[in-house]
Amino acid sequence: MTLKCVKSLLVAGFSVFCLLFSISVFAQEELPETEQDVKKEEKKGFDANEVIFGHVLDAHEFHFFSFEGSDGGEHDFAIPLPVILYSPQRGVSAFMFSKFHHGEHEYKGYRVLTAKTIEEENLPAAKYHDGQIVAVNENGQVDEAVKVYDFSLTRNVVQMIIALTLLAWVMIAVANNYKKGIGVTSAPKGSQSLLEPVIIFVIDELAKPCLGEKKYKKYLPYLLTVFFFILINNLVGLIPGTANVTGNIAFTLVLAAISFVVIMASTNSHYWGHIFWPPGVPLGVKFILIPVEILGIFIKPIALMIRLFANMIAGHILIICLISLIFIFAGLSAAAGWGASPLSVAFTIFIYFIEVLVAFLQAYIFTNLTAVFIGQAFEGSHDDVDHHDEAVIV
């Protein structure tokens, strides 16, 4: 019942977002009065590329939607985040990102770059990028002599903190219930009843089959933490305006690196013996197989990293592309925009429900493969042989 309510709230929130976004864009489709305004409007248009990458990339604010104010200008409904900068020449500076007014103003000798300013000022693309905060001189130009270290709390960082807080809060609440005997001498209640089947599923379907009865408890805390941390970030990322944390390659890189450390820490002499001198293989084949086995050590965590990143970012891009079709058609004519809206929204809702399924599926796949790789790391040891014997007897 709780899961159904969460799904309904997510869909309702997304629908409201689509409606508000549609209203804000169509409100800006008024006919300009002069030829100069016409050229300005045509030049501006709807930039699907900017919308898509603005959603999937990191930023210094949580942006929900834009609207036209009473003054005729475009305004954004967003939650700015703290900007924390350090420069050896200027010291520490801390302020809210809203002080930059989306790159239109400088503040305390700093300015945030946009794709437009990078192009207009002919800044090297290899050194500067959209959203980068740089120091400026008295003329407002980029001061390359001032080194800037950015320690700002971006939306990816803030959302990971929120996800970690939710994870700790829920798990501590469940643990306290078990300490009180709830779920042991009586039926589980609240979030405990929702999480208990998932935890049992991870134990019975992931930990025990891959790690064995004797060793699964050693790795269970890590597997449960990875599963629920990815799941929470996946689900929170489906709320309109939030960050797509699991669709960030840096996030999946860190998760894969941690799994790599755990896998390497679980290896034994039998594992390395198969890597550097595979038994039962002709001598000529060994020299071909050994480099492949060594590459396989690093390919496994890379596969974990890319799989999670690619699947999560692809779903978000697809949803934004479907919504963007409304405004692309609206650029042709208002009738075409309104005509494309029902079909676009219908497909968006369908993909949105698929993304909810993918959120669970990707958390499961990452955890499952991690357990498999850990199991392979100590496969062939005496404990593992005993485990397989017990499994056959059972």
What does this protein look like?
The chain folds into 2 domains: 82-152, no CATH class; 155-393, no CATH class. Residues 1-43 and 381-394 have low confidence and may be disordered. The strands form 3 sheets. It has a 3-stranded antiparallel sheet, with no helix packed on it. Strands 1-2 form a two-stranded antiparallel ribbon. Strands 5-6 form a two-stranded antiparallel sheet. Strand 1 (61-68) and strand 2 form a beta hairpin. The protein starts with a helix and ends with a helix. 63% of the residues lie in helices and 9% in strands. Helix 7 runs antiparallel to helix 11 and helix 8 (249-265) runs antiparallel to helix 10. It has 394 residues and is mainly α.
Topology of this protein?
Elements: H1 2-26, H2 35-44, H3 48-56, E1 61-68, E2 74-80, E3 82-87, E4 91-96, E5 110-112, H4 115-120, E6 133-135, E7 149-150, H5 155-179, H6 191-211, H7 216-236, H8 249-265, H9 269-276, H10 283-332, H11 334-377, H12 382-393
Helix pairs in contact: 1-10, 1-11, 3-10, 5-7, 6-7, 6-11, 7-11, 8-10, 8-11, 10-11
